[in-house]
Amino acid sequence: MRAAIAIKAAPAVVFLMMSRCADALQFVPHLRVCRLRDQAPDGTWMLIEHEIDFGWYAPRVRYVFRADLVPDHTIKFRQISGDFKAYEGIWEMEADESGQHTLLRYRAYIDPPGFIPNWLARSTFKRELPQMLTDLRRRCEAEQVRRTQADASPH
After folding, report:
1. pLDDT classification of 124: cutoffs 50, 70, 90
2. What's the topology of domain 2-147?
């Protein structure tokens, strides 16, 4: 699975939005639990627990993944325990020349739990990934505007 989106926000804003559970709960479809379980003192990795509720047609999906972080540049992730047979990928952030716009690229390999048919998982991800990216862009761009206005106001 691959996707990309242009965001009118600096990579630092995008990275921060993507690496905080409180924000992930606002843009990841069906995400009901996001919990930071552990992290490196130097911020190079995190262990995060997710629980996804697809609704009446599937049991909740639970998993823990490790996210290896290069601030403002990449988030590489892989499941270390949980319901997926496999779940791994990378988010890459590339700034434009001004440093105020980000091209966000996503690549992932997902092998769903045995209780979710592959066709259903593929159709769900295909439908919901664009919405997730659109919601993420909206939140990042609003945060960028807020920061720009705060920087411009007299202190």
Report:
1. confident
2. Alpha-D-Glucose-1,6-Bisphosphate; Chain A, domain 4 (3.30.530)
